[in-house]
Amino acid sequence: MPDVHVVNAENAHLYTDELDQHFRRRHDVFVGRRGWSELQRPDGRDIDEFDDETATHLLIIEGGEVVAGSRLHPHTAPTLLSRKFARLANWQLPPMETSLDWTRLYVLPRGETAAARMRVSRLMYCAIMQYALEREMSAITFVGYLSLIEVFGAIGWRTTPLGMPEVIDGRATLAAGIAVDEAALFSALAAAGRHGSVLTGRCLVSGGPATRDAA
Amino acid sequence: MHVQELLDAIDQIQSVDDPQKVLDLTAAALSQYGFTAFVITGLPYRGQSIEGHILLSGWPTEWYERYVFSDYVHVDPVAQRCFGTAEPFFWTEASFDRQKNRTAARVMNEAADIGMNEGFCVPMHMEDGSQGCISMGAERIEMPHEARVLLHMLGIYSFFRARLLKNPSPARRLLTPRETEILTWAAVGKTNRDISETLGITERTILDHFQNAGRKLETRTRTQAVAMALQYRLIQP
């Protein structure tokens, strides 16, 4: 299983092909499969106003192909949650200066078993938690189907709803916060069958793991 | 149930490590809406018994036994509806033909006979493709419309917590192979020096392994770590 690449403003130039794939896959998944028509773009790439220098993308790359992705923003910058889904988070919010907003999670269906897909998903969850821990975050927020609460609960993560769920496109959708701590990373690693760091990146200048390319 | 009560219940459910406590916390929250009985269960495919799938039973013993023994799960319209929907539903929404489907009618009638006239069910679709639900019965449900989504949330938390606590398989991978090896030697009375000589690593490294294992097992001393690893069956005596 490959490692998960951390791609941000500092090393995006080393990932031009992979980022382009990432935006196309996002369009396939969110516009094509999930029918979020407001994201539709003629060039077939899902790129919005949050895909700027404040965004960090986590990519799982297998043999040159991007097979899973996620996007993270610090809550000190504008986020999808604060700008578009604030109504879903009107109960209580985690401390914004130590929180990340997690958006655009996708894992491509690769004609494999549910178990194989789950392994890729869980690797991504490990990466998200490791990234947040290394940056000394305390919470990760997300907007998603209620069923994600079960998915995260199954890997031992503690979540807190941030507001009343709403039915969006026929499914109950909520904003929630995930508690960031070592136990959460550990249980995710155990569920994914992994040990040690899952993050990598091409020529990360600062803050990241040792430079290493797991092509 | 107010929002704060729900958040408190969710917080507590995620904090407890005893399945019985999950059962108690869930029962207390559900009782506010008139629910007197509930079950948290995985759903077996046709031909399988439900028995090994039940995670927590807050059903009367009599009903539990009859339901399991008579394989009601395969004719119960509530359980069957779970395979086709991700959204919670009232038992009355699990429709069936009372004339043609006599067995389904019997299950619902018998549930009513023991005091479960009405009910609410939250289906669960797990990432691994398996199905489950938390199904709640009441003499009479007293539930405002907005409580539906709160119960949906509560149901999800109770379900996954019960599933996590009753299915400790991830815990088997809790310890690294080296930690397992070292705890196993410690369990048979070897000192750190003995282990260090046997494995060809320094005592310092062994102490680090004990410290890491202790953190994962939430224990303070070497002896406690060994005891806990034995109790969780992470090592064989």
From TrEMBL, chain A:
One GO BP annotation of this record: quorum sensing
What this protein catalyses is: a fatty acyl-[ACP] + S-adenosyl-L-methionine = an N-acyl-L-homoserine lactone + S-methyl-5'-thioadenosine + holo-[ACP] + H(+)
Q: Name one GO molecular function term.
A: N-acyl homoserine lactone synthase activity
Similarity-based family: Belongs to the autoinducer synthase family.
Q: What is this protein called?
A: Acyl-homoserine-lactone synthase
**What species is this protein from?**
Jiella endophytica
- Which principal EC class is assigned to this enzyme? transferase
The EC number(s) this enzyme carries: 2.3.1.184
Q: What keywords are assigned to this protein?
A: Autoinducer synthesis, Quorum sensing, S-adenosyl-L-methionine, Transferase
Q: Which InterPro entries match?
A: Acyl_CoA_acyltransferase, Autoind_synthase
Automatic annotation (TrEMBL), chain B:
PANTHER family from the xrefs? DNA-BINDING TRANSCRIPTIONAL ACTIVATOR DEVR_DOSR
Q: Record keywords: Metal-binding included?
A: no
Q: Which InterPro entries match?
A: Sig_transdc_resp-reg_C-effctor, TF_LuxR_autoind-bd_dom, TF_LuxR_autoind-bd_dom_sf, Tscrpt_reg_LuxR_C, WH-like_DNA-bd_sf
**Organism of provenance:** Jiella endophytica
Q: Print the keywords alphabetically.
A: DNA-binding, Transcription, Transcription regulation
HTH luxR-type domain span: 168-233
GO BP annotations listed:
regulation of DNA-templated transcription
Q: What is this protein called?
A: LuxR family transcriptional regulator
GO MF term list:
DNA binding
One Pfam annotation reads: GerE
Per the UniProt entry, the signal peptide is none
